[in-house]
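Action item from last week, closing it out:
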Amino acid sequence: MSQRQHTELSHAQRLRAIISGSVGNLVEWYDWYAYSAFSLYFAPVFFPKSDPTAQLLNTAGIFAVGFLMRPVGGWLFGLLADKKGRKYAMTLSVLLMSFGSLLIAATPSYQSIGVTAPVLLLTARLLQGLSVGGEYGTSATYLSEMATPNRRGFYSSFQYVTLIGGQLIALGIQLIMQQLLSDEQMQHWGWRLPFIIGAMLSLIALYLRSHMEESKAFTEQTSKPASKKGSLKELLRHPRAIAIVVGLTLGGTVAFYTYSTYMQKFLVNTVHLSMQQSTMITCASLFIFACLQPVFGLLSDRIGRRPLLICFGVLGTFATIPLLEALSRTHSPFSAFGLIMSALIIVSGYTSINAVVKAELFPTEIRALGVGFPYSVTVAVFGGTAEYVALWFKNDGHEPYFYIYVTCCIFISLVVYLLMRDTRRTSLMP
């Protein structure tokens, strides 16, 4: 890295670095969410013909298995980010995601190659899970370290802006394709195009990340022993911080995946709206949700992180069941949009600031690992399985049990929010 890294960055340099990190994050999450957005179309391609819910269970199962690789990614890329730099780890992760997307795009159907088709799909998803597992911790750390102390909440909130933006691009491409192609064309070959687009976008992200600045926090801790950087042994010296990451993530990740990833299928399977209506509602609500993230992030810079987390915990605990019950009974697309938007406003109290809260809990030498690893484990166990749990309860005839499950997860996190200190005041970041 250039010697200028050891001096204070200018506003323009800081802004370019944050944009580069955020755009790369957007492309990675587009690739990740393209799977969920188009699974309604390619489910029959990779699995034997059966009832639609069973096919969705199979694709949701592979979606969940992809999450199982996220702890491995959180550990591996966290270690690389703490030892070799945030930039190095972030560049490598986007390359891995690109390869996974190409593999999905090129895999033949079940009718052509039999069981090899779902095996290749699973392999691609495992690679993408590894990439995303590493992306979260490194990008959250990078954006937090590149921000000025009084604007960390604001700048780090762009991680979820781009995370949601990736999903919006996937849904936007789906909307365009739904207008241009028939359902038969979408199921036959159209669903492959988004994965090809994702692989191409990765080249742009690769260029941006290869030219971005390394964080000053990382370059200034070169005197620390290599054995202490990115070490699990060193991480375990911070058990309280690890427990807070797990606890504050649990309810937030279940709520987020319920109202974003799973909601598109919920609107089709339970509310009985069309695929086009479901996509439009999801797109509109997520766009507003993305716009809210910097607003909540800026608010946390003024009043602290803890009040926002507590608001999410309290409202999520008391409003989840009524919201989902009302949503399951509505037949109006406008009512469905209003209910989902209400839920996403509540969830913003978590999504907008969870990255900076975690980054503020750990010292520089293990920050990427501390943010990424325990978070990825929690998301793998709870976030990645939320859609599968929801479909399992529905298939078993007890869908309302899922509403209770989401509520309980949020309540556990609420307890953590009430007991933790406000990291804006106790931050270990310089």
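Closing note: The radius of gyration is 21 Å.
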